[in-house]
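The aim of this short unit is practical: by the end, you should be able to scan a pair of folded records and say something sensible about each. We start with the first protein, listed as its amino acid sequence and then its structure tokens.
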Amino acid sequence: MATTEQILPTGQRTVPQIYMYDDTSFPGWIKIGQTTRSDVRKRIDEQHPVTEPHKTYRLLWYDNAFYADGSGESFSDHDLHECLRHMGKELVGEWCKCSLREAKAAYVAVRHRQTQIETVRDLDYPLRPEQKQAVTQTADYFARMDGEEPNRPSHYLWNAKMRFGKTFTTYQLAKRMNAKRVLVLTFKPAVEDSWRDDLLRHRDFDGWRYYSSRLEEQQLPSLSSSKPLVVFGSFQDYLGRDRYGNIKPKNEWVHRIEWDLIVLDEYHFGAWNDNAKSLLDMGSDEDKQRLKEADEVMRESGIDVESGRAWDDSEVPIKGKHYLYLSGTPFRALATGEFVENQIFNWTYQDEQAAKETVGGPYMEMPTMVMMTYQMPQDLGAMIEQWDMDGFDLNEFFRAETVADSKDSNGGRQATVAAFVHEKAVQKWLDIIRGKAPIFGDGSSPLNVRPALPFEDSRLLDRCAHTMWFLPNVASCDAMEALLHHPANGFYQNYTIINCSGSKAGVGVDALRPVREAMGDNPLQSRTITLTCGKLTTGVTLRPLGGLLMLRNCSSPETYFQTAFRVQSPWTATDKDDPTKKNILKTTCYVFDFAPNRALREVVTYANQLDIDCNRRITDKVDAFINFLPILQFDGSSMKRVDATEILDFVDNGTSGTLLARRWNSAQLVNVDNATLQRVLDNPEALATIMKIEGFRALGSDIIESIVNKADKIKRLKREMGDKKNSSKKKELSAVEKEYRSKRREVQEKLMKFATRIPIFMYLTDYREESLEDVIRKLEPSLFGRVTGLAIDDFDLLLRVGVFNRAQMNDAILKFRRYEDASLAYTGVNRHTSDTRIGLMDSTVPIEARLVAGKAPISRM
């Protein structure tokens, strides 16, 4: 009778495996074999005598030899040999003259029971859970809209950060939808490689065709074929016109067909189009600055700005059934209400880092970002002519001017020479960040903890061996390059300085090449500083990059985070002993910001706007974000990690009275988009109420109807024009658009003027713990009528039809309450010591901290 030890299995389980290795003795050949041993190397060592002084082989790859259908059956190395023979490859025994990619493509084919393959497809990986969720949500939405509104195109946004895998996931969506014609339009043609490789190398898309407008030798694809077609092109190409205003002849075929799916890649570049601008208060200084900044960075990056402005699916003559928008920073699209909640899939930085903690696996490669902010000393500001009391004015501090043109020995012009206007201050800053100058002017102020500085702290020096410095403009980059090469800055000359700005640096791959060359074949041994004012800040990967220095004002969150996430590219190396494993070379990356107010404001914007859950408080959103992106702040005396409440306090207390007043005169408080105006027009009572607002009667009783009709006429004229140049139609269209914008602006201004009465009412009433709607309806109805000129029921009706933006009202009311209390506390007055809540527009929130020392109460939505 067998014993227990005899019955229970002992030893290691056999695992059928395929392995591939090359040998210096047989260059260009790969040995493809199989073994059932768990340690592949032991089997290979048996084929190479141990008496050899040095092993001449290199293990390239190995994996299991089971079929992918779950049957449990296995295949052999002979099956791969036969597949490679069908591919026309030369074999001698188990040795094959081929590339590793071709050998792996044979493995992928055999694993899926294919004996012959038309194209080399060596990629075979499934969708990750979040990618599968994106495909399912989007496909279900498109299918639902096809049933409900079959004659209207449907739209969906993927708010997905870098490294989500948008190309592979988009193709899986197209496959799920059974889409036969897919058009990919991008604002960044340099991203084409990933779109092409994922389609042509992954086995899931065997038989799919790819066409690019950038490959001139490619023939136009057949549209009658049943095989799916993906067409890739840039906006500037497919939307471009000749000098007569006609579509380019080579692109006419793109405009003649209806696409099953149109994909708009890097959509944040196109969200500044005319539609978006018309819905925003483009008269405000803030939005004008954001637009200017976005334009500057796009142009420096080689992006056709005007092509981005031109996109509007209802007007551009490229027609599609479904539209998919891809962006990692779609702030503008979300702010304008272009997409509602059920049209958005989210995969943000905090989602990725949460998966890294709970799931591990592929997410482990993604570095954790750390933001370090520094309150710079006042004496640095005193060294320059202008000092922004709201923060460190980086654009002024790093302002540079052209001082001369250097010349060669023959007197010919060689290069433009620039210098900082405040060079002494910049030089002191360079000394400070490497720890060679006190961070206080006289060095007498004691520090509780010396701040960690990027070029001094030993914990940061190696991790930030490769940094990017984001400066205001080309002149600033030129001046910084010159200053870093000054004899006084010998420390920085241990780094290779690359000036990646202006036309001299080229665009796309041309701009990237010198940076990669400077990093060399072993970036662990080299050190670089890359100077840029826009190039390489989006759509490129610099894996060794460890730190980013924000040295310019950024009013646009798109610009800020597109640039910041460049530093988060994963950096791994294949394990020397096991080619199936990766060693992570970059676990943490850093953003250094010298304008704390701005930096923390952008953090709040990212955490709040990209999390579309309206039921979550801002505090909770910020807390979730900084749980995975720690923020260390140097406040002049110590460096410490800040929490969500401190961040919001810091941002809120930076609000000036002027900015607060401007907020109540903002177009974002009112909605004058076509949908809202149509609702007003369809509701006679609402239309009559609008006319009661001061100044509206002077506009005429038909003002709303006129705006809606003109919007319809603009669309009709654009459809009639089509691809043809028609000067009379164009002139008519221009006139109608001008009148349309003028009338809508007039309506907007009247509503904004009404909104400015609300803070007056809040100041006059002493009720703070009730929502403003309750105060208006129940407690101070007559006061509201006297201040605004509108009855309670009338105001309530306008709220219901959406004329006023509740979310923006809530935010403005909360900031008003904080500023009001902070101002009164400063004078020693506090009328609300017993209050436990603050009333907003339609709700109330708790006061989470008492009012002390002039500090505004903390209260979060």
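Turning to the second protein, read its sequence before its tokens, just as you did above.
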Amino acid sequence: MLGSNNRALRVFLSPKVFGLFLGLIVFGFFMFLGQTTDVLDNLETQVMDLHFNLKRSLVRENNQENVVTERRSPKISSDIVLIGIENKTLDAFGRWPFPRSHHADLLNSFTRIENQNERESAVLLDILFNDVADRAFEDVVLLDAIRENGRVSLQSQLFGQPLSSSREDEFNRRLYALIDNYGEITDINGDVSTVNAYYGIESPLIPYGRAISSYGHASYREDKDKTYRRQQLVSRYSEQIGEYRLEDISLGMDFGTGDLGHLAWFSKEGVYVPVELPLTADSLAEMQKEILRSGLPRVDESEGEGEAYYVTAFKDHYIPAISLTLALQYFNKTLDDVEVHFGSHILISSPTRWDPDQGAWVPYAVPEGSAGRRTMRRVDEIRIPIDEAGNMLINFMGRRSSPEPGGLQTFPVRSYAAYASSARGSDPDTWPPTKKLGGKILMAGAFTLGMADDEKTTPLGLMFGVEIHANALNTIIMDNFIQRPPSWVNAVIMLAIVSIFAFITSRMKNIGWSAFILVLFFIISFFTVTLLFEFQNILIDWAGPVLAVFVTYIAVVIFRVLTAERDKRQIKNVFGQFISPSIVDELSVSPPELGGEDVDVTVFFSDIRGFSRISERLSAQELVSLLNEYLTDMTNNMVDDYQGTLDKYIGDAIMAFWGAPQPQEDHAVRACKCALMQIKLLEKLNDRLVERSGGEVAEKLDIGIGINSGTCMVGYMGSEGRKNYTAMGDTVNLASRLEGVNKEYRTRILVSEDTYEKIKDEPFILRELDVIRVKGRNRPVNIYELVDYDGNLEESINIAREQAG
């Protein structure tokens, strides 16, 4: 049982298995990081910005006649036109703000055309009308122009905290003027607790609220890096309708909020903390606990100088963003046609569009495909993806448009002054036939620096607010939404690629190749997600999975380095006693595979002749001393001089082989040279023995050597707990038999025919002896006596050492 557990642990801790486990650990860490921090979200946001910057929505080309042409993306609507208040306009009309009569002239220039089928779909004045004009008649003139146009939209501003309490009633009356005129969104679904509540609103003056055709808020929420990437298409404005002492609140109370409303208490940090309705026993208890801990009490006038905690009841109004309002006008829809599902989508069913040529509303369709192969795709519904707070990612189509003629324009920019200066009077006989603006959405706003604090940072750099509205509007009316897969899809993608790279990195012998594959993956994956974003608007997480893969790669490589050091020590322990240090060093760099493999080798067997008689005449200590001296000389020659592998000692016999664990093309030559050198070393040993004994050695040592070449099974073999690196097979058996046959032929070194074929071109002196049958073999074997080497064996040792070093 213990052995089985140890075996399982060794398998688990092997790089091939533990590498996958490391990948799972990294995946779990990144999932935890994504759930508990904004680190990965911030990285993905930066990657999205890079996608925007790589997008080619507008290409300018010079043809052979040096005429500049533009190729626009079919995903940019031609029905969005920006009316820029730029330097030309400021030169014409003077300092900002202009007299409101100029805005009236602008609207009249759109309204007063002969062919009313060529009228625009909507006009946005990205200008605040929250205060009366310096000259009262200016408001009268503009209001008349707004009513005559009948398609004007104005904006409200939302604030996180209440505005001046003295003007709160006035601001609410302005809001109700808008709601009475245009309405508010009532089909609300999903968890509204995730939607930020605004407690302050500033809307146009009441006469404007009654005159315009629609309204919307212009508020954006910047991301943590102060960049604007999304718009809250449906915002929650909370109107205060009542106030209650904390101790007076009980379950089942009617706070007068209706179906849409909530409670809130004022914290020590100076912000409202919302509590959703209806109250439950748990939510009431939690609210009481939090108020007592973090609430800001105030003096209760009814109790003299005492302090009390108050809870405020708010009625919620769901206000559309101005881009959503303009889209509804373009589709000939109202707020009653909007269905909101927070955390999922906003639905606008059966959109239509005004066709100036037919003079009628027609089913809506958007262009698809590239130039020359463009088709129209009918859109039966507009399904806008939104997050839990009602935010839509804006699909920015290009950098800020230039108001200058010939400048780069993502959306066409036309001069405010050009239109405002061309307004005609009330006599229809003086009106032009058309302004070529049929069915278009006109968006008038600041397009010059210093006019207003209206520049905001976007993924594509600074952009005026009106063009941010244009990009948001274009995203809606072109059905060009950025689609983010569910989080589980990104998690599956991360798990898959982390597992694949853990598998590759833990198994490839060459870590450099795995690094190359890693870099190649970075490049290919980035271009893949970029193309998906460019052509399919699919935004797949890239930074998180790539970072997880990189961390997995580093973790597996470090583990492999650590285990490689352990394996090097093991290799030195296993091989250090029976192969040369130089080969041990090579094996440390490229370890052999564990287990057996078929290898072409030369096997060497030697045995002392008459060792039994010698051992009978010597004491045990003398015998051990003699054997150690003999084996030391023979082994050093074999291992160090000729880079052989000592397999084992079998009493006084030695088994060795060449050709493994490191391949040696001349393994047969090395074995034969070693055999001849061992005969010479044996003679020197005998001389030393005679010298030490004073000439009284009765019998000198003599050995027989058998050498055979062929294919063997070589590798770690043995029990689970004890293994040796050895060779097995018929080649080994024949070498052992040849060693024994020396006695019959009174020879010292016999080699097989297979070994002879490998060394016959070398200057060895051999003598063909016989054809014999060896026990265990059916085929006769030619045997040769290795007599000598016609060269300098000492010199060959030095050459071999130099090659090994």
